[in-house]
Amino acid sequence: MKIIVGSTNQVKVTAVKEVLEPIGQEVMGTNVPSGVSNQPFSDAETVAGASNRAQACLKFGEIGIGLEAGVEYLNEQLYLVNWGVLKTQDGQTFYAGGTRLPLPTELIAPLEAGAELGDVIDGYSKRQNVRSNEGAIGILTADFFNRKDNFSHIVRLLWGQYTYAQQCCRK
Ligand SMILES: O=P(O)(O)OP(=O)(O)OP(=O)(O)OC[C@H]1O[C@@H](n2cnc3c(O)ncnc32)[C@H](O)[C@@H]1O
Ligand SMILES: [Mg+2]
Protein backbone atom coordinates (compact mmCIF):
# COMPACT_ATOMS: atom_id res chain seq x y z
CA MET A 1 0.00 0.00 0.00
CA LYS A 2 1.17 3.53 -0.72
CA ILE A 3 1.22 5.68 2.42
CA ILE A 4 1.70 9.41 2.07
CA VAL A 5 3.04 11.60 4.89
CA GLY A 6 1.97 15.22 4.64
CA SER A 7 5.39 16.79 5.14
CA THR A 8 8.90 16.81 3.74
CA ASN A 9 10.43 17.33 7.19
CA GLN A 10 12.87 14.39 7.40
CA VAL A 11 12.02 13.78 11.06
CA LYS A 12 8.35 13.15 10.27
CA VAL A 13 8.99 11.09 7.12
CA THR A 14 11.72 8.99 8.76
CA ALA A 15 9.52 8.31 11.79
CA VAL A 16 6.78 6.91 9.55
CA LYS A 17 9.24 4.94 7.41
CA GLU A 18 10.88 3.34 10.45
CA VAL A 19 7.54 2.06 11.72
CA LEU A 20 5.85 1.05 8.46
CA GLU A 21 8.54 -0.01 5.97
CA PRO A 22 9.60 -3.07 8.01
CA ILE A 23 6.00 -4.30 7.75
CA GLY A 24 6.05 -3.95 3.97
CA GLN A 25 4.42 -0.55 3.41
CA GLU A 26 5.65 2.02 0.90
CA VAL A 27 6.04 5.48 2.50
CA MET A 28 6.56 8.83 0.78
CA GLY A 29 6.55 12.38 2.12
CA THR A 30 5.00 15.26 0.23
CA ASN A 31 4.42 18.92 0.99
CA VAL A 32 0.75 19.69 1.65
CA PRO A 33 -0.82 22.68 3.41
CA SER A 34 -1.73 22.30 7.09
CA GLY A 35 -4.45 24.94 6.76
CA VAL A 36 -3.62 26.24 10.27
CA SER A 37 -1.09 28.74 11.66
CA ASN A 38 2.60 27.95 11.24
CA GLN A 39 2.63 27.72 15.02
CA PRO A 40 -0.63 26.15 16.20
CA PHE A 41 -1.55 27.42 19.66
CA SER A 42 -3.94 24.75 20.99
CA ASP A 43 -4.57 21.01 20.80
CA ALA A 44 -7.63 21.76 18.65
CA GLU A 45 -5.65 23.78 16.11
CA THR A 46 -2.83 21.22 16.11
CA VAL A 47 -5.11 18.25 15.46
CA ALA A 48 -6.90 20.25 12.74
CA GLY A 49 -3.53 20.78 11.02
CA ALA A 50 -2.77 17.05 11.21
CA SER A 51 -6.21 16.22 9.85
CA ASN A 52 -5.95 18.69 6.94
CA ARG A 53 -2.55 17.28 6.01
CA ALA A 54 -3.85 13.68 6.11
CA GLN A 55 -6.84 14.59 3.94
CA ALA A 56 -4.65 16.38 1.37
CA CYS A 57 -2.40 13.29 1.14
CA LEU A 58 -5.26 11.11 -0.09
CA LYS A 59 -4.79 12.63 -3.57
CA PHE A 60 -1.46 10.79 -3.77
CA GLY A 61 -1.97 7.41 -2.05
CA GLU A 62 -4.34 5.00 -0.33
CA ILE A 63 -3.51 6.24 3.18
CA GLY A 64 -2.66 9.76 4.33
CA ILE A 65 -0.84 10.54 7.55
CA GLY A 66 -0.70 14.08 8.93
CA LEU A 67 1.66 14.92 11.80
CA GLU A 68 1.50 18.34 13.42
CA ALA A 69 3.19 20.01 16.37
CA GLY A 70 1.80 22.82 18.47
CA VAL A 71 1.71 24.35 21.92
CA GLU A 72 -1.05 24.32 24.52
CA TYR A 73 -1.50 25.94 27.94
CA LEU A 74 -2.31 23.92 31.03
CA ASN A 75 -2.38 25.74 34.39
CA GLU A 76 -0.40 28.66 32.92
CA GLN A 77 2.38 26.36 31.79
CA LEU A 78 2.92 26.15 28.02
CA TYR A 79 3.42 22.60 26.75
CA LEU A 80 4.78 21.25 23.47
CA VAL A 81 2.11 18.96 21.97
CA ASN A 82 1.99 16.72 18.91
CA TRP A 83 -0.91 15.13 17.04
CA GLY A 84 -1.25 12.60 14.25
CA VAL A 85 -4.20 11.76 12.00
CA LEU A 86 -4.44 8.78 9.63
CA LYS A 87 -7.08 8.82 6.89
CA THR A 88 -7.98 6.14 4.36
CA GLN A 89 -9.47 6.42 0.86
CA ASP A 90 -12.59 4.62 2.13
CA GLY A 91 -13.35 7.26 4.76
CA GLN A 92 -11.81 5.93 7.98
CA THR A 93 -10.06 8.41 10.30
CA PHE A 94 -7.85 7.68 13.33
CA TYR A 95 -6.39 10.15 15.83
CA ALA A 96 -3.45 9.90 18.25
CA GLY A 97 -1.69 12.39 20.48
CA GLY A 98 1.98 12.33 21.36
CA THR A 99 3.54 13.01 24.67
CA ARG A 100 3.60 16.60 26.01
CA LEU A 101 6.47 18.43 27.61
CA PRO A 102 6.61 21.77 29.50
CA LEU A 103 8.45 24.53 27.64
CA PRO A 104 10.86 26.80 29.55
CA THR A 105 9.19 30.05 30.68
CA GLU A 106 11.55 32.21 28.62
CA LEU A 107 10.22 30.65 25.39
CA ILE A 108 6.65 31.78 26.09
CA ALA A 109 7.02 35.52 25.30
CA PRO A 110 8.51 35.07 21.80
CA LEU A 111 5.91 32.40 20.98
CA GLU A 112 3.11 34.68 22.21
CA ALA A 113 4.61 37.40 19.99
CA GLY A 114 4.18 35.16 16.95
CA ALA A 115 7.54 33.41 16.58
CA GLU A 116 7.68 29.74 15.60
CA LEU A 117 9.01 27.27 18.16
CA GLY A 118 11.46 25.97 15.54
CA ASP A 119 13.16 29.39 15.38
CA VAL A 120 12.91 30.07 19.11
CA ILE A 121 14.44 26.73 20.11
CA ASP A 122 17.36 27.24 17.66
CA GLY A 123 18.25 30.50 19.45
CA TYR A 124 17.69 28.97 22.90
CA SER A 125 19.87 25.92 22.22
CA LYS A 126 22.40 27.75 19.96
CA ARG A 127 21.88 25.04 17.33
CA GLN A 128 20.53 25.14 13.79
CA ASN A 129 17.47 23.46 12.30
CA VAL A 130 16.52 21.72 15.55
CA ARG A 131 13.03 21.13 14.08
CA SER A 132 14.47 18.73 11.47
CA ASN A 133 16.75 16.97 13.91
CA GLU A 134 16.41 16.26 17.64
CA GLY A 135 13.54 18.74 18.06
CA ALA A 136 12.74 20.93 21.04
CA ILE A 137 11.85 17.77 22.95
CA GLY A 138 15.31 16.31 22.22
CA ILE A 139 17.02 19.49 23.43
CA LEU A 140 14.94 19.70 26.61
CA THR A 141 15.44 16.01 27.49
CA ALA A 142 19.19 15.83 26.72
CA ASP A 143 18.23 13.64 23.73
CA PHE A 144 16.74 10.91 25.91
CA PHE A 145 13.53 11.36 23.85
CA ASN A 146 13.77 13.13 20.51
CA ARG A 147 11.31 14.47 17.94
CA LYS A 148 11.48 11.30 15.82
CA ASP A 149 10.71 9.16 18.91
CA ASN A 150 7.67 11.35 19.52
CA PHE A 151 6.37 10.99 15.97
CA SER A 152 7.08 7.24 15.74
CA HIS A 153 5.13 6.76 18.99
CA ILE A 154 2.19 8.54 17.35
CA VAL A 155 2.54 6.49 14.14
CA ARG A 156 2.44 3.21 16.11
CA LEU A 157 -0.74 4.39 17.83
CA LEU A 158 -2.31 5.35 14.48
CA TRP A 159 -1.30 2.18 12.66
CA GLY A 160 -2.36 0.05 15.61
CA GLN A 161 -5.85 1.54 15.58
CA TYR A 162 -6.09 1.18 11.80
CA THR A 163 -4.98 -2.48 12.02
CA TYR A 164 -7.44 -3.20 14.84
CA ALA A 165 -10.27 -1.68 12.80
CA GLN A 166 -9.46 -3.92 9.80
CA GLN A 167 -9.37 -7.02 12.07
CA CYS A 168 -12.55 -6.11 13.87
CA CYS A 169 -14.55 -5.49 10.62
CA ARG A 170 -13.55 -8.75 8.98
CA LYS A 171 -15.12 -10.83 11.81
O1 LIG B 1 7.55 20.98 7.35
P1 LIG B 1 6.56 20.76 8.43
O2 LIG B 1 5.87 19.44 8.32
O3 LIG B 1 5.59 21.88 8.62
O4 LIG B 1 7.44 20.61 9.78
P2 LIG B 1 7.63 21.57 11.01
O5 LIG B 1 8.95 21.27 11.63
O6 LIG B 1 7.33 23.00 10.67
O7 LIG B 1 6.57 21.01 12.03
P3 LIG B 1 5.10 21.51 12.39
O8 LIG B 1 4.60 22.45 11.34
O9 LIG B 1 4.28 20.33 12.72
O10 LIG B 1 5.36 22.27 13.75
C1 LIG B 1 4.63 23.42 14.10
C2 LIG B 1 5.56 24.45 14.63
O11 LIG B 1 6.15 24.02 15.84
C3 LIG B 1 7.57 24.03 15.72
N1 LIG B 1 8.02 22.85 16.42
C4 LIG B 1 7.24 21.93 16.92
N2 LIG B 1 7.89 21.00 17.54
C5 LIG B 1 9.15 21.32 17.44
C6 LIG B 1 10.32 20.72 17.90
O12 LIG B 1 10.29 19.61 18.61
N3 LIG B 1 11.45 21.31 17.62
C7 LIG B 1 11.46 22.43 16.92
N4 LIG B 1 10.40 23.05 16.46
C8 LIG B 1 9.26 22.50 16.72
C9 LIG B 1 7.85 24.01 14.25
O13 LIG B 1 9.05 24.68 13.97
C10 LIG B 1 6.69 24.80 13.70
O14 LIG B 1 6.92 26.17 13.88
MG1 LIG C 1 5.46 23.64 9.79
From TrEMBL:
Pfam families: NTPase_I-T. Keywords: Hydrolase, Magnesium, Manganese, Metal-binding, Nucleotide metabolism, Nucleotide-binding. The keyword Iron-sulfur does not apply. InterPro entries: ITPase-like_fam, NTPase/PRRC1, YjjX_NTPase. It catalyses: XTP + H2O = XDP + phosphate + H(+); ITP + H2O = IDP + phosphate + H(+). It is an enzyme of class 3 (hydrolase). This is inosine/xanthosine triphosphatase. It comes from Turicibacter bilis. The keyword Metal-binding applies. Its cofactor is Mn(2+); Mg(2+). Its EC number is 3.6.1.73. Residues 6-155 form the Non-canonical purine NTP phosphatase/PRRC1 domain.
